[in-house]
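Quick one: structure for this chain?
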Amino acid sequence: MMITILSGLLLFPFVILVLLLIIAKKIRVKKSKRFGFAVDLTTPFLVLTVLILLRAIWDQWFVFYIVAAFCIVAIILATIERSKAKEFRMILVLCKAWRAYFLLLTGAYFVLIITGIILQITK
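Got it. Here's what it folds into:
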């Protein structure tokens, strides 16, 4: 029973996002910070979900590519930040990279779900 619940939560990370939004409201996180709080804590679950979906579809682990994508996103954002700001703050760049990574993983999640469905239909 517990494994089924955990599997469902991992397969649908947006349930975790909604739960974290509810928890943030209950613990009285400011309205302006609530979504960022939930996104920051949901991102690791999205990483696991994307890795599991990649493994299920192509039967290989793509951990290196996931880490490389994060590094590339961080480098691009660091370059942009360095050219725009007078004072370069690495923490700010990492926060932006983490949020951008959430968006990237969300897109990958939906693409992988659709790809998995299409591959199952065509087999």
